[in-house]
Specification:
With 641 residues, the chain is an alpha/beta fold. It has 4 domains: 208 residues, 3-Layer(aba) Sandwich (Rossmann fold); 120 residues, no CATH class; 216 residues, no CATH class; 69 residues, Arc Repressor Mutant, subunit A. The chain is built from 20 helices and 22 strands. The chain has a 7-stranded parallel sheet. α13 links the parallel β13 and β14. The longest helix has 19 residues. It is globular, with a radius of gyration of 27 Å. The structure holds zinc ion. Zinc ion binds next to α5.
Length: 641
């Protein structure tokens, strides 16, 4: 696959559907003499191609793409399926553009069919009366799950009756599925095929800790042998059968897990038996009492594509209709893991506007543990609340210190979900006019904060350490070889005065895992800061963005560094060390001593001295961070939660 990088990249503008499509056609054909009337046949010829159009939030991409879909239908009879991240985003778009499109919805909460479908059974009738005509002519709009079904047997056939898919915003998490089944449910699952029953039984006896990979299969082998069989025998027998569904137990239904779980199990067990390495996608967590299994849902195996797309005899050969992806920030390398796109171009983001003033805290990343949200048991204690109040007061102080501050100023707040109300209430108690509040990882109301005078973002939205690495393993699939070691990276923040500040960011040694980690964090920061619609703010209208996070955001120019007296004193070595440990354990549950020494090293403090300083202060560091130190002077020395 080859990405064309057209030299006219910066000139691509979605002026009209025609010029927009002409740009695409010129781009994919490489022929710059294409006339608008030639565009449709060219687009039709490129059924296999996906095109990624990078456009910043507020660039009008949704409006223009919708206009294009209408035009394609009205003038050319070409049907578009428009895919968005949530029903609320769809409702907003339908309302704002007054669209007469078919909005695909699933069954409602409480519907019997939905309830049992979520458990993996297709046996029940609808009780909610939801009825959508998916064959209705014209464009349709739907959540992206329609092309990414959890259960590949249940995909909606009508998705192939469109000539074009437009995917508006990509959230890589949606390409990954995760299901879980409890130990109790495993024990109660009565499966009609003996070999499957044997495996389920062995799994249910393997709840001895956190197990995956080789450790898990060692344990499962042991229990299979106790039952008079072996993993090798089981694998032979599994090859000869088609795994059946569970029979629905009406009184106490359990998830219909065997088909999908056995398919992943079979793959892993085969690699285990052949001593080949693989990425774990089955995880037993005895403390949580559950077995989690993950897979990448990337569409679509070729055999699923029938009937062929009407009017396109060759379409059975292709994975899916032409897809255009409108996306702001997804990492190219990661996108290639999930979509076979071949063309890409960019609607260039204008320079950061000088009248939208960004003030960023650069000392530490203000992670969940900085705000005493992790580990979870700590979050509700009085000490935790006191820790957070210090941060809330810091926010209040910085807002009130803004030039020309007036109590009428509407302030928008973005922070972690568990503390969003607590934080907003605290700010209001200090007479800050909190106008809107949105938590990280929330797809709701894209325009809710666009009119605020001040936008506050509190905390770095690193993915929660629970499950992150499991998710990354599922995303990259079984073939990539990944590792979970963490490390610190130096990144750059660009300042308005032309200087560059270096910040220390937590990440993973493995470049793939780190890329995924970074993408998830930066995506939230980028979406958050763009909720104020910086590029649409009138030139005479001064706005402020306060970032309590040191994560650099692409395209953002920082005017000043947030540094209260408290922050200044906390720059002492101990405070820095505590921050580094908290950050590290917040991501991975551990902080290596050598990484900590590296973070403390300065012009006047050598790595060796830093190391000795840590050894003198182990007990204090343990107490201040709720961690335990182990490993003595060796390379594996570390603090763990
Ligand atoms: Zn229903």
């Amino acid at each position: 696959m080859q990405v064309h990088k057209p030299h006219f990249e910066a000139e691509v503008k979605m002026a009209t559907p025609k010029t927009f499509l002409t740009d695409i056609a010129v781009n994919i054909s490489g022929d710059s003499s294409i006339r608008p009337e030639d565009v449709i046949p060219i687009i039709k010829d490129y059924l296999m191609d996906g095109t990624v159009i990078r456009c910043y939030p507020g660039s009008g991409k949704t409006r223009d793409a919708i206009e294009m879909a209408n035009w394609l239908w009205e003038k050319h009879g070409i049907r578009t399926l428009y895919l968005m991240l949530s029903h609320s985003a769809i409702n907003e778009v339908v309302e704002r553009n007054n669209l007469d499109w078919t909005h695909w919805r699933g069954h409602q909460d409480g519907c019997e069919k939905r309830k049992y479908a979520q458990l993996g059974y297709s046996t029940k009738d609808c009780t909610c009366g939801m009825d959508v005509d998916r064959s209705r002519p014209g464009p349709a709009i739907a959540p992206v799950e329609y092309i990414l079904p959890d259960n590949p047997d249940w995909f909606t056939r009508e998705i192939f009756n469109f000539q074009l898919w437009i995917i508006d915003e990509v959230d890589l998490r949606r390409y990954v599925a995760q299901k879980s089944v409890t130990c109790d449910e495993l024990s109660r699952a009565s499966h009609g095929q003996q070999v499957v029953a044997d495996v389920i039984d062995a799994l249910s006896k393997s709840f001895t800790g956190k197990l995956s990979g080789t450790e898990l299969y060692d344990e499962v082998s042991k229990h299979l042998e106790e039952a008079g069989t072996s993993l090798a025998t089981v694998m032979d027998e599994l090859l000869d059968i088609k795994v059946q569904d569970l029979t629905l137990d009406q009184s106490k239904p359990i998830p219909n897990f065997p088909k999908q779980l056995m398919s992943i199990f079979g793959y892993e067990a085969e690699n285990y038996l052949n001593s080949r390495s693989f990425n774990s996608r089955i995880h037993i967590d005895a403390q949580a009492g559950e077995l989690r299994y993950w897979w990448n849902k990337t569409p679509f195996p070729e055999e699923l594509i029938e009937p062929a797309v009407p009017g396109y005899p060759d379409s059975a050969l292709h994975a899916h209709p032409t897809a255009i992806i409108l996306d702001a920030s997804a990492d190219q390398t990661l996108m290639r893991q999930v979509t076979p796109y071949v063309h890409e171009y960019q609607v260039e983001e204008p320079e950061w506007p000088a009248h939208v003033h960004v003030h960023q805290y650069l000392e530490a990343s203000v992670s969940r543990s900085t705000l005493s949200l992790y580990p979870a048991w700590k979050a509700k204690t009085k000490e935790a609340l006191n820790t957070r109040r210090v941060w809330y007061d810091r926010v209040v102080k910085e807002v009130k210190a803004l030039p020309g501050y007036s109590p009428d100023w509407a302030v928008g707040l973005i922070t972690f979900k568990p503390i969003i109300d607590e934080a907003a209430e605290h700010l209001r108690g200090q007479s800050i006019k909190v106008f809107g509040q949105i938590s990280y990882h929330n797809q709701r109301g894209s325009n809710e904060l666009e009119d605020v005078k001040v936008l506050v973002m509190l905390g770095s939205p690193y993915p929660s350490p629970e499950g992150f690495y499991e998710e990354a393993q599922a995303f990259f699939g079984p073939f990539e070889s990944l590792t979970s070691h963490t490390t610190q990276y130096t990144q750059q923040v660009f300042m308005k005065d032309g200087s560059v500040r270096e910040v220390s960011i937590h990440g993973y040694e493995d470049s793939n895992v780190n890329r995924y980690h970074r993408q998830k964090t930066v995506y939230e920061m980028y979406q958050g800061v763009h909720r104020i619609r910086p590029h649409n703010v009138d030139a005479g209208d001064e706005r402020h963005v306060l970032l309590f996070s040191n994560v650099p955001i692409p395209g953002v120019i920082v005017e000043s560094q947030l540094m209260s007296d408290k922050v200044k004193t906390s720059e002492s070595r101990m405070a820095l060390a505590i921050n580094v440990i908290n950050e590290a354990v917040g991501v991975s549950g551990e902080c290596y001593k050598k990484d900590l020494a590296g973070a403390l090293e300065t012009d006047t403090l050598t790595m060796k001295s830093a190391d000795r300083w840590i050894e003198r202060n182990i007990e204090k560091l343990e107490n201040s961070t709720g961690t335990v130190f182990s490993g003595g002077k060796g390379a594996a020395a570390r603090f763990t939660t």
